[in-house]
Each structure stands twice: as structure tokens, then as C-alpha cells.
Design brief:
Length: 339
């Protein structure tokens, strides 16, 4: 077994591939409660994670992350020298992985299997919180062999396991495997690490989207108990636009922009009758400006460069005929671009 150095990981995002994945459903496994799919909202999925995915939108965090995971496994399996990709999400406690996604495997023995620290290749990677690989899965003395039958059924030979780390927590596992014996070189490890880093980033972005959605939901609930002040409405609208800026799902972005129009009191209808036309990004920047954010803060919230913020503001000021931020906000409200 090869324990891969942290430097070869991905930007703080470690990934594990369980060559010996708890794959085979032996009689011992079948006598236990059936494996639970984290992504299907079953009882094995922690309550905190389930609550996290019940947002006011139709797109759940788990579904979005699963989509990223599937694309990641496809990319791993298509790398030179690799033939298969598999993986799943890890419970919040970091002590249980359920394999839910398989790419280019011929059998289904891996799907739904629960993996715990120390068991199989992935369990070792989970236990040590770093990538681990084996040249020959079935004969390796460094891992347990409860699942050799499943590995043999899919002709798994060499395998690499990487735990996906997000802010110090193992959030997912990805595996790459071959059907011929291979020693994974630095180039392959580096390439898989880049792919893993991208998945870690995608998960972190989804976490931030869900955090902001929870905040919006809380503020909406608060507004139902009492009317919000204009300043609070502006802040709520700015938060919705900021979420839309980092959301990667197009349908979610459209729903958030529609929600923004509702929060701003039907401004969209007024805008359609004014001669001033702003691009969506110019409108986003203007909304943040109305909430009192500085250029640097707007750039951070919308995930754009400060110079881009300045460009959008200059364009907006030119269209409104204003000379400074105060005049811009006043002119925007007069034109019906802001509530």
C-alpha cells in the first residue's frame, strides 16, 4: 500500500478511493440492516445533513453535490491508465461512507455498500485522512480483504482512494481503479488531485449557497411576523442576489432572481416601463450597493473582481446620469430599479 504525501493532495481536499471497497454483500452483511443511501434521505443520513438539504428551493444540497460527484468520477475513469471510478458521500461524523455512484463498472456489487474507517482501501484512506493506493488490490497485505469477491467480479487490480476534505472534514470519497496492475506515478496522482480539488471546491460552494439560503429563509420567516424596514428589505434582496451569483445550477439562479423581484416589490414591472436598461450583473451590483456594501465587499459577495464592480458601477452611473453613489441610488429608485 502506498500512502501518498499530503503535498500531492488537492488544495486541502483529500480524496479516498477504496480499492477494496466494502463491496461484496456477504451473508454477514445481508444479515444486518440494508445499506442506506445517503443521497436518498434515508435514516443513515444524519439529521443535520437532512435539515441542510431541506431548503426553500427545489434543488437540494445533496442532489447538487451528487451531480458534482458523478462528473468527478466520470473524469477520473477517463484518465489515461484508469478504467473505473466510484464514490459516495461521508456522514457528518466522518465515520461512514456509502458508495452511491459508480462509473464504468460492470457489476453493481459496490453500490450501496457502507464503508467504515480501517476497512478496505477506502477505510484506510478514511482512517489516515489522506490518499492511499495499492498496486494489486486482491493480494495487497496492507488492506483487509472482505471484499475481494466484489473486486474480482469487476476485475479491480490497482486502485487509488482519495478522501475529499472540506474545511477539515471528510465530505466524500472518490476511487479510481484499473483492470491491469499499475503503479500510480506522480503525473497520475497530480491529475487526480486536481480533479479532487475541484470537487472539494464545488462542495464548499454548495455549502455556502445553502448557508445563505437558510439565512434568507430565516429572514423571510421573520418578515411574515412583521414588516421589514426598507434597509432590511435591501439587505435581504442583496443576500438573495449574492446567493444567485455563486449558485451553479441555472434553474436555482433563475428562481433566486425571481425571488429577488418579489422581495423588491415587483420592481421588474416598473423597470420594463423605464428607459433605463441595466444588465443582470449591473443590477446585481446596484442591489448590493443599495444594501450598503463597499466595492470590495460587493466583489467578494458576487465572486467577481473589484475592478469589475467599478466597471459595472461606472456603466450604471452613466446610464442614470449620476455622479456618485448617493445620486446613483436616488436615480435608481426614481427610475424604478430599486424599491
Amino acid at each position: 500500500m502506498h500512502s501518498l504525501p499530503i503535498a500531492q493532495l488537492v488544495c486541502g481536499s483529500q480524496v479516498s478511493t477504496e480499492g477494496e471497497i466494502d463491496l461484496i454483500r456477504t451473508e454477514e452483511q445481508s444479515s444486518r440492516a440494508p445499506a442506506i443511501d445517503l443521497l436518498a434521505g434515508r435514516s443513515d443520513y444524519p439529521d443535520t445533513h437532512r435539515r441542510r438539504s431541506t431548503m426553500t428551493t427545489d434543488v437540494s444540497a445533496a442532489d447538487a453535490i451528487t451531480g458534482h460527484l458523478r462528473r468527478t468520477l466520470r473524469d477520473v475513469a477517463q484518465l489515461d491508465g484508469l478504467a473505473m471510478g466510484l464514490g459516495g458521500l461521508v456522514t457528518q461524523a466522518g465515520n461512514r461512507l456509502v458508495l452511491s455512484e459508480l462509473y464504468n463498472l460492470r457489476c453493481e456489487l459496490f453500490r450501496g455498500v457502507v464503508i467504515r474507517p480501517g476497512v478496505g482501501l477506502g477505510g484506510v484512506a478514511m482512517q489516515h485522512r489522506r490518499p492511499v493506493s495499492v498496486d494489486d488490490y486482491v493480494t495487497s497485505p496492507s488492506i483487509t480483504h472482505q471484499f475481494d469477491r466484489a473486486a474480482q467480479a469487476d476485475r479491480v487490480r490497482s486502485a487509488i482512494a482519495l478522501p475529499i476534505m472540506v474545511k477539515g472534514d471528510i465530505r466524500a470519497m472518490i476511487y479510481g481503479a484499473t483492470r491491469g496492475e499499475t503503479t500510480f506515478g506522480d503525473r497520475t496522482i497530480a491529475t487526480v488531485s486536481v480533479i479532487a480539488r475541484r470537487l472539494a471546491h464545488d462542495i464548499e460552494v454548495e455549502d455556502e449557497v445553502q448557508r445563505r439560503l437558510r439565512r434568507v429563509a430565516d429572514e423571510q420567516a421573520e418578515s411574515e411576523r412583521g414588516a421589514l424596514s426598507p434597509a432590511e428589505l435591501a439587505e435581504l434582496n442583496a443576500e438573495i442576489i449574492a446567493i444567485a451569483s455563486v449558485a451553479q445550477d441555472p434553474a436555482l439562479r433563475d428562481r433566486l432572481h425571481a425571488l429577488s423581484k418579489r422581495v423588491s416589490g415587483g420592481v421588474a414591472d416598473t423597470v420594463s416601463r423605464t428607459s433605463v436598461r441595466l444588465s443582470r450583473r449591473e443590477s446585481d451590483v446596484l442591489t448590493q450597493l443599495a444594501a450598503g456594501y463597499t466595492n470590495a465587499e460587493i466583489a467578494e459577495r458576487l465572486c467577481i473582481l473589484p475592478t469589475t464592480v467599478k466597471t459595472h458601477l461606472r456603466n450604471t452611473m452613466r446610464k442614470l446620469g449620476s455622479r456618485n453613489r448617493v445620486e446613483t441610488l436616488a436615480a435608481a429608485r426614481h427610475a424604478g430599479l430599486l424599491p
